[in-house]
Write a structure and sequence with these properties.
Shape: globular
Oligomer: single chain
Radius of gyration: 23 Å
Number of helices: 13
Strand order of the largest sheet: 3-10-9-8-7-4-5-6
Structural class: alpha/beta
Helix content: 25-40%
Distance between the termini: 37 Å
Largest sheet: 8 strands, mixed
Length: 474
């Protein structure tokens, strides 16, 4: 029997305690960490260990029994059902030291995932927003156009057709507040629809932590698929066939690599033959510093298996709360129905103002300007980090995007400890291991969007000093 002291802590702030207990037990079984026939702790013992109500554990156990993971008879202990071991073909070490969301520093230097909002064209946006706010028509204020007003759908499609090679009709564009909302809608439509096997999601490893969290909320069975210099390698996936495959092919998060054409074609063919949907998160491909951005995966999809996601959070500002999904034709009705139920709607005056902003060339002009600004900041950051931190870190090339990956030369380093040590000095880095589901290569992730080129050298020197005085240096 697994000792109760070995069970992971429950995150009370995240809610759904029953679901957390269910997923902890299920994942142990699926990854071969609990063998067939193994006895589970009693509901009372596990409840005491996790500091939850016994009824919470009872409900989680009942759910696992109903789905066939556990079995029990009256008067006998609850045991793991007989399965191939492990179900996912390999044992994945589940780290108990993963940082909680509140542990990630925010607002500090080199914070990933945030653009330079000070560079946002405030005055121009205010004019567009004010003009549309004063001129909304009566029919704009009703319940119509749940998926977005036609003007914005057309403006977005015109833009991404030209810049990203996306091929679609305006009806396929669904306007949402965030890419997270888009992922949520797609999982609600596609996962667990008919059979538990439809709950499998393959996801890049390492990958986007928010996507991990959203798939967990959907009770998806996540299969980590390794990424290398050519992107996700589906040939190395070990697990049940997927219903969803989440990828960032143009600029893999967080490594920054671009998926090769051969891998793209293999992924599309695999999805077509297996009936899977590929979620292509194209979160910051507008920013490329050494070459023209590679066309979107969606543009070469001839089987309508790709749902393409884009956002204005990185290109303009997160506070706008505008993103979009270009979904396969057969999913449009289902996604819009789910959108109505969840209220994932962007205010109509913001949509209308953004449509004008794009149509009149303001958005493209902003992208051109910021591409130059970010290219300078990326180059300065790469040079400074190589100069001051090269003893410890192998720094990525920084050819695009707003974040920069680095890896510790010593692969035994605890990157979470290193992250905490550096962040204590006013930084907001991310540990690369926190973005893995499977075995992790330690490293640090930097955000370059708000790092002025002239300040990069001093910032890198401070990081080097923090690393030199931390456990990284022994």
């Amino acid at each position: 029997m697994v000792s109760v002291v070995q069970w992971a802590d429950i995150d009370r702030a995240a809610g759904d305690l029953e679901g957390q207990v269910y997923r902890v037990v299920r994942d142990r079984i699926l990854h071969g960490q609990m063998a067939a026939g193994q006895r589970l702790p009693s509901t009372r013992a596990l409840a005491n260990a996790l500091s939850v109500a016994r009824s919470t554990v009872v409900s989680a156990y009942d759910r696992l029994k109903a789905e066939g993971y556990l079995q029990s008879t009256t008067g006998a202990a609850t045991r793991v059902s007989a399965f191939p071991s492990p179900l996912l073909g390999q044992s994945v070490t589940l780290r108990s030291k993963l940082p909680q969301a509140t542990e990630f520093a925010t607002g500090g230097l080199f914070e990933p995932g945030v653009p330079d909002v000070e560079a946002f064209p405030h005055a121009a946006w205010a004019r567009y927003l004010g003009a549309r706010g004063r001129s909304l028509r009566v029919h704009d204020l009703g319940y119509g156009a749940h998926g977005g007003i036609r003007e914005l759908r057309e403006a977005i499609l015109d833009h991404i057709a030209t810049t990203r090679g996306v091929i679609a009709r305006p009806e396929q564009v669904v306007i949402v507040p965030t890419t997270g909302a888009a992922i949520n809608l797609l999982t609600s439509v596609l996962l667990w629809a008919d059979h538990p096997n439809d709950g499998v999601a393959w996801i890049e490893d390492p990958g986007y932590a928010t996507a991990h969290a959203l798939f967990r909320m959907a009770s998806a069975m996540m299969v980590p698929v390794p990424c290398d210099a050519e992107g996700i390698d589906i040939g190395r996936a070990v697990g049940p066939p997927p219903r969803l495959i989440y990828v960032t092919p143009s600029h893999q998060y967080p490594t920054g690599v671009t998926m090769s054409l051969s891998r793209r074609l293999a992924l599309l063919e695999f999805a077509r033959t297996r009936g899977a949907i590929v979620i292509e998160d194209d979160y910051d491909s507008e920013f490329q510093y050494e070459s023209r951005p590679i066309a979107a995966l969606q543009g070469i999809d001839r089987g309508e298996v790709v749902a393409y996601l884009g956002t204005f959070s990185k290109t303009l500002a997160p506070g706008l709360r505008v993103a979009y999904a270009v979904v396969p034709s057969r999913l449009v009705a289902s996604v819009e129905a789910a959108q109505r139920l969840r209220g994932a709607i962007v205010p109509v005056h913001i949509q209308a103002a953004l449509a004008d902003f794009i149509r009149e060339g303001r958005f493209r002009a902003h992208l051109r300007r910021m591409n130059g600004v970010y290219a300078e900041r990326m180059a300065a950051s790469v040079a400074a980090l190589n100069s001051h931190c090269g003893e410890w870190l192998c720094v990525g090339a920084g050819t695009g995007g707003l974040q920069l990956a680095s890896w510790f030369r010593d692969e035994t380093v605890d990157d979470l400890a290193a992250m905490r040590s550096v962040n204590a000095h006013g930084f907001a880095l991310r540990a690369m291991s926190s973005l893995h589901l499977g075995p992790a290569r330690p490293g640090l992730l930097f955000g370059i969007a708000r790092m002025d080129a002239e300040g990069a050298d001093a910032a890198a020197a401070r990081i080097a000093n923090a690393l030199a005085t931390s456990s990284v240096s022994g």
